[in-house]
Design a protein that fits this description.
Length: 137
């Protein structure tokens, strides 16, 4: 009885540690990969800047592009979470699988990360000299 309780606690601790390590690494990778994908279109942005587009227009273009990706990712993530809810019941302690507060906090964290992933490269790319952007693309 004591050994099964220790195994149960060890399972909860292992899952918690995995989430605490894997989640921030995943968020960091998402930000960096979004940064890289936006730098890929730097030449296109340079052409737009050279033709007279404002930095505000470029930032809005990037934000719309990232917003679409973010919306599709959130929809897919929520669908997968609803599908995986049965399997998650065994590792959740003190929280129901469809807890609205937990889901809302998770969605807010993902949205904040997505906005950071969009804002950071959008503002830096919008400040680039058009000639440099075209040459380096």
């Amino acid at each position: 009885m004591i050994i099964s309780a220790i195994r149960t606690v060890a399972t909860y601790v292992a899952v918690s540690l995995y989430v605490l390590v894997a989640a921030p690494i995943g968020m960091l990778l998402a930000i960096l990969l979004r940064w890289k994908s936006l730098l890929y279109v730097l030449g296109h942005i340079g052409v737009r800047l050279a033709l007279g587009a404002s930095a505000r227009h470029i930032a809005g273009m990037v934000a719309r592009r990232v917003g679409g990706t973010l919306a599709r990712g959130l929809a897919a993530g929520l669908v997968m979470a609803l599908i995986a809810v049965r399997g998650l019941q065994s590792v959740l302690f003190g929280v129901t699988p469809l807890d609205p507060t937990s889901i809302s906090v998770a969605v807010l964290v993902v949205v904040a990360t997505g906005l950071l992933a969009a804002w950071w490269p959008a503002t830096s790319v919008a400040r680039v000299d058009p000639a440099v952007a075209i040459r380096e693309a």
